[in-house]
User: What shape does this take?
Amino acid sequence: MVLFLVYFLFANTIIKLVLESKLGESYGAEVNIAEFDHSLFPTTVTLKGIALTNPTKPTHNQVLVGEANADVALAPLLDDEVIVNELNLLDVQFDTERASTGEVYRVPERSLSFDEIKSKAQEAVPSVDELLERNPLKTTAAIENAKAAYETYGRLI
Assistant: This one.
């Protein structure tokens, strides 16, 4: 009975703190969650005010999610796996100012400029001729077959 009471009173707070810590650790900057609520049957979670600090501009959030609702598979949670069957994100905003400067745990590498991204994309995307060489079209083969058939049988008619 005491265990149930402790769970009922503190589970949401404990889960919220663990989520903020683990998400921040993997993201590389402070993650804040204003509210967290869950239910076990069915297994659902609701998070409100999810703020991900922008690591290159800690005075702002890179993303701010007003509310997230998720339907989660219960059995995999026991094996430290999270399988989300359905996820709804509401009121998503980008580059919003934070009430206080967020902590940055890992400074991200320099971002590529637009010209650098464009150049890399051009290098990675093959030309039309390269694509045709790699994947001969069936219509090209059909035309060659039709010409050969005409050469062979067309003269007989």
Notes: The longest strand covers residues 84-97. Residues 114-154 form one domain. Helices lie at 2-27, 74-77, 114-124, 128-134, 138-154.
